[in-house]
Amino acid sequence: MSVKGFTLLEILLVMTILAVISITFQQSSLLDSWRQWQRMRSLRASAYSLLEIISYTRTLATSTQQSMFLCGNWDCHSGWGRQVFVYRTDDGSLQWQQIITSSDDISIVWKGFPIQRDHIEFTPEGGASYQNGSFYICDPDYLLRVRLNQSGRAYLDPIVELSTTTVEVESCYGS
Questions:
Q1: What are phi and psi of 163, to 5 degrees?
Q2: Which candidate among 13, 54, 63, 90 keeps its CA 20 to 30 Å from the CA of 164?
Q3: Helices in the chain by DSSP H: which ranges?
Q4: Which residues pair with 122 in a beta bridge?
Q5: What CA–CA distance (Å, rounded) separates 16 from 4?
Q6: pLDDT tens for each residue of the chain, 175 residues long
Q7: Transmembrane region positions (predicted)?
Q8: Using only C-alpha atoms, what is the Rg of the chain?
């Protein structure tokens, strides 16, 4: 009786050769995919940190019945950086400080109405003091937008690839 087929050793040898060839051709694309996933994860983490501090500031204003400022810098006058600060309006005391991102590649830009304000004021009623706008959390290839409405509620938009749009690129880096 003659049995035809492959031995276990032959099957393992062929699978090993196919795996090595596959890894060789896909290594660069796997590495690129991994880096892309890490960058998108970092953007999402920054956006969720920002959403958390916006919600905290709004809650603090309503629970203490005092207006609170959400600022992008320690003095509330010089734009937005990688940290966010929460101040009380009555005595200017610092209530909270949170690092939004530690990556040098990520920038945070506030574009809102009225344009001249470098801070967002949350009133004791929870509103954003007639301010609305968007935070753009940008890296060289992607961005996330966190929208803030006048009632003080924030919403997260999906990740956008900068190569597919021009409006958001201008929002992140100027024209």
A1: -70, -10
A2: 54
A3: 8-64, 167-173
A4: 68
A5: 22
A6: 677 888 899 999 999 998 887 777 666 677 788 888 888 999 999 899 999 999 999 999 999 999 888 888 777 777 777 778 888 877 777 777 777 776 788 888 888 876 667 788 899 999 998 788 899 888 888 889 999 999 999 999 988 888 777 666 667 765 4
A7: 6-25
A8: 24
Q: What is the rounded CA–CA span in Å between residue 100 and residue 134? A: 16
Spatial separation of the C-alpha atoms in residues 17 and 20, rounded to whole Å: 5
Strand order in the sheet with 94-99: 94-99, 83-88, 68-71, 119-122
Q: What is the pTM of this model?
A: 0.76
The tokens for 36 are: 């892309």
